[in-house]
User: What shape does this take?
Amino acid sequence: MNGKCLKLSAFLKISIGINLLILSVPSTLYAQDWVRTGTNLGVQKVRLAAANFKAGSTDSQTTPLKTVFDTTLFNDLKNAGVFDMVSKSMAPPQTPGGPQEINLSAWATAPSSAEMVAFGSLSVGDGRVTVQGFLFDTKNTQTPQILGKQYADAASEENTRRIAHHFADEIILRLGGGLNGICETRIYFVSNRTGNKEIWAMDYDGQDQHAVTHLGSISISPRVSPDNSRVAFSSLGKDGWSIRMYSLELGRLVNFTSPRGTTLSPAWTSDGGKLAFSSSETGDNEIYTTDASGGGLHRVTAFRGPDVSPVWNPKSNSQIAWVSGRSGLPQIYIMDSDGANVQRMTDGGYATSPSWSPNGQFLAFAWDRKYGPGAPGGQDIYIMDIASKRWIQLTHEAGANDFPSWSPDGRHIVFQRAQDGRTEIWSMLADGTGQQQLTHEGWNAMPNWSWK
Amino acid sequence: MDGRRKFFFCSALVKSQMARERPKKITPKEETVQIVSRGLLHRRSLTLAAGMAALFVVAGCSKKAAPPPPPPPITNNGPAPTATITATPGVINAGGTVILSWRTTDASDVSIDGIGAVPSAGTRTVQPTESTNYHLVAKGSGGSTDATARVTVNAAPAPVSNLSESDVTDSTFHQNVKDVFFDYDSYDIRADAQSTISSDANFLNQHPTLKVVIGGYCDERGSTEYNLALGENRANAAKQGLVTAGVSPDRLRTVSYGKEKQFCTEHDESCWQLNRRAQFSMDK
Assistant: This one.
């Protein structure tokens, strides 16, 4: 290790001129192929236009709901990360309501140059909203239709957004390499907006934020079950921290047997059958596993120092990544779920909050590579290719970032960012681009992306 | 552990190789030095001028007195230093300890009466036997300033053994069972904490029916979940210390608060130190 250092420093001395080049690399690093391929962002981007839908009725709700629909559909497709979207200002001044009304060549030629067009109509009548949506291939003039869908529901903003999400996911499934879109997924998080830290939920795009728990204590680390039926989290009670289980179907807490001691950071297997968490029954936090109701408690680690924040490899459910302080500052480790084959992944600094990518290939985590007393400390989100231990930094010089969580399509990461005295939830594509803030009120942290 | 040090060493090395701006950084320091020495020269020449003026006055007594020397020009040698000092708690009983924490800016020479020269910012645990004013003087190129923190020491408490359990209030409990403080990212009991634990255990052993909750706390830095585990380790380290000193573990309960309940909310080392602690309370 020392030898390597000396070599490196000698190299730097010789090639000071090259230093500038090296320093300028990070801005292009995120485009590395292994990241784009592993995160399913490497597909050829389809040039896609989303036309404003045609108003199919004169009901007074039509215009506001159509605005919601058009905005939601465009943002969903833009957020997907696999389209080269035609900006609305480049689109032909047409709102085709159906297959007979579209002039494909107008969309296919510059400046829109679209390969695909999504279009249709929205009407409101008798308190119901009806949407007809189409997806056409501009190059295939004989049989251009790829998709034709009709949706109807009670007329409300929320339902209209849901219809737009549904239609967007259909398009993403067809054109985005066969992966399900994430427009109908949700994000669970912690917010103090009621005066206490409670578990909250919102749509993937930050819409419809609402409190899930009302316990009046401190509740943190929400982890939703793979079937979206329950949220496991950690809560402070009279006897300290325990794992609690909230049923989203029943709207109340349900039974979970939490061990004594400080019990933290639950994590589900991808089949929903087991949980891993950290508990201090021995006085020192170790990783344990149980079944989904807290039975069959099994201790996995036994080493002096904090062990916390486990996550399962969702591909196999036979490995666990977690944070351990056994060698000093916290580092990311992985092991088999029976405690064998412990492997340290990070080589220094302060590394926490691992999240295992859906395809099993990557870990996302928070890392402060120069952590220490007096160090300025930029805590950023990184992802690491587990097999090669190659890593890449996704956030740069923007506050302290923590608690990354993968979206089910592996193309997005949600995380918390503390900046300018505020802590908010942000999302980004898994190559670090497209960062956007999802919360704007109160203190919001520890996001967890639903599995579907 | 060793690997980690190597890593830091390595990154430091790389850093120094890459720090091509270094000469620039040194410049302001040199400037300060020059300004100080110029200031000294200036003062010397002023003294000289005053002395010569006095000579003139003495020599030419019948003559019109020489004009008074011009007022010393205002020399702007740099920003005036600032200093703050606090003592926590401000009132103790004899035998208790107090944490002094201070902070200065633009000062090159900082001292506290009775303690001597100290770093420009820091904390120190003191055990005054009588009421004391901790007077801090900070001197810099821009002048000097001072700040004072007063600690009131009450007369020695009545021998604790005379207190029956029912008489122990929260405040007598806290006067006798002191909090334990920890180093950064550590849950090892420090030497100063060891003596605190001994006297804490002494009091608890004299009041064998008192039950105690030990809260483990961390500073605001680092990640929420890891800090909760670290806080548990701190509370447990304090508990083990008391058990070793003869307190029954059945009387002791630990709760980690991690960084969820910050005692001090400034973003500096003196505050972080106050937050990195195991705190004892009566378990009611």
Remarks:
- The helical segments of chain A are 2-14, 16-23, 26-29, 33-38, 62-79, 104-108, 157-175.
- The two ends of chain A are 44 Å apart (CA to CA).
- Chain A touches chain B through 54 residues (CB under 8 Å).
